[in-house]
Amino acid sequence: MSVTGVGEFGLIGRVTARLSYGPTCLLGPGDDAALVTAPDGRVAASTDVLVEGRHFRRDWSGARDVGHRAAAANLADIAAMGAAPTALLVALCAPPDLPASWAEELADGLGAEAASVGASVVGGDMSASPTLTVAVTALGDLAGRAPVLRSGARPGDVLALSGRTGWAAAGYTVLSRGFRTPKLLVEAYRRPQVPYRAGPEAAAAGATSMIDVSDGLLADLGHVARASGVALDVRRDAFEVPRQMGDAAQALGVDPYTWILTGGDDHALAATFPAGTELPPGWRPVGAVTDGEGVTVDGRAWEGPAGWDHFR
Amino acid sequence: MSVTGVGEFGLIGRVTARLSYGPTCLLGPGDDAALVTAPDGRVAASTDVLVEGRHFRRDWSGARDVGHRAAAANLADIAAMGAAPTALLVALCAPPDLPASWAEELADGLGAEAASVGASVVGGDMSASPTLTVAVTALGDLAGRAPVLRSGARPGDVLALSGRTGWAAAGYTVLSRGFRTPKLLVEAYRRPQVPYRAGPEAAAAGATSMIDVSDGLLADLGHVARASGVALDVRRDAFEVPRQMGDAAQALGVDPYTWILTGGDDHALAATFPAGTELPPGWRPVGAVTDGEGVTVDGRAWEGPAGWDHFR
């Protein structure tokens, strides 16, 4: 049955019945607003929107996948401040003929990804629209720590990474060439594996700056370099090309480092730490912070394609 | 220049440069997430989405108006919990040919409406989309009070209203018949006048239930009746028909009580109070809570058109 057949309130009922609510959710869907714990006395908040045809395709990703990815994009932003995610709110704009089951499975994916990090889907809104759109807001708690901004990197700091890059971009390239395998790459595109806990752990370890890698490593490091007034240099040999990625790159005629250095949507976390910091689990050094400006790879400008502009 | 011409980051820069940030905003746009005060240790959160052609038309409302209305719809949900709004986050999905000035003026409207109640636009996201869409999330603080839910109305309570109903619906009817006047009604549709402060004041005065009237008074009271397991009766003579509304109703051949009792989008607040409560300023009694179920007008079922389902 379509969302129109079920109706707005019917669909909200079906979706909320599938969700479960963790201890951060004091009041879930069904009233004018939800109520979420904010023990720190401050709340971190971020919004990301996914538009069909631009951020996802229904023939490439199932509804659950889109839910996972929409949640991940937002939860990663919270983690990148050093905060622990507490809640998601979701606005779903659905074409009238969208199967109600698609909305239900989207909620399953959103809920599962949120639950994986102790957060809950606490509220949302639905409307008909010609364009299938999922707008998500994530909330999080800093547990008394200072937020880790993009602007705190200092010359002499170590540049480090938690999580992986290039996998989602490789999966995207595979799909866009009409293939459905290698499964490992396609699945990486469909459901990013985000090192959420690495965010608060980096904050606790004294990270001076941090960012969620969503537009591509070099593009996002560019934000850090600009905000901090420093130069960042990435060591290419800090990144091994995984076998499956290398094989696919060769088959498709792509330099795998284009995926690794400029591919978005894996939601790795990049951070800088004072020299000598013992990096928390899962973090590895990938470069250095120096005086100057801009981002280089092994000391040279990157000549390949750059990051992503959602209007271009 | 269009949003495509300006580019995603250019547009974000233009928009955020126009915003101002009040004391609830600890960190505004420009990092992975914003940071907002939540002194209560809990945060109220609500999301509402506006889709062009469904919730607004660009030939009926200017961008500033849409901003005011999108903000109002969300801020009213926070007020209806008894909370004071602190922040808005906004996802804008824009057709590539949207003038950048439209996005800028939207931000002006969102910011002005938020500022009127002490809140700030603290973050957001932008994407291209075939369908102009504005998804807003509002946050708020309960200042130590219990949230006022839809489920707390008890037989014997007084049903009360703050703010006005029917004005936005009258303006909508005027516009949909091709007229641009009376100005007063059209402006009421374009920019609702929401009694934000009445929400926390009702909570402080002991309101047992509260709701934002967004889908129409009778429809929204239906939510309260169901959630509380009570019947609600509205006195029709508690509502005077304002002269301008009466004149327009006569000219258009509409029963003005259809607007007043079933028209949405003015974002009045409806609440129930224990009998004998001295109602806070701006609240007036409009009916009673009794044993039973459903919503009646002067003891009888309402025969006119019902509320609004966004998929139908």
TrEMBL record, chains A, B:
Keywords: ATP-binding, Kinase, Magnesium, Metal-binding, Nucleotide-binding, Thiamine biosynthesis, Transferase. One of its GO terms (molecular function) is ATP binding. Pathway: Cofactor biosynthesis; thiamine diphosphate biosynthesis; thiamine diphosphate from thiamine phosphate: step 1/1. It comes from the Bacteria. Substrate binds at residues 55, 265, 308. It holds the Pfam family AIRS. Mg(2+) 1 binds at residues 47-48, 125. Gene3D superfamilies: PurM-like C-terminal domain, PurM-like, N-terminal domain. It catalyses: thiamine phosphate + ATP = thiamine diphosphate + ADP. Mg(2+) 5 binds at residue 215. NCBIfam families: PRK05731.1-4 (NF004351), thiL (TIGR01379). Catalyzes the ATP-dependent phosphorylation of thiamine-monophosphate (TMP) to form thiamine-pyrophosphate (TPP), the active form of vitamin B1. HAMAP family: TMP_kinase. Reaction mechanism of ThiL seems to utilize a direct, inline transfer of the gamma-phosphate of ATP to TMP rather than a phosphorylated enzyme intermediate. This is Thiamine-monophosphate kinase. The lineage of its organism: Bacteria, Bacillati, Actinomycetota, Actinomycetes, Micromonosporales.
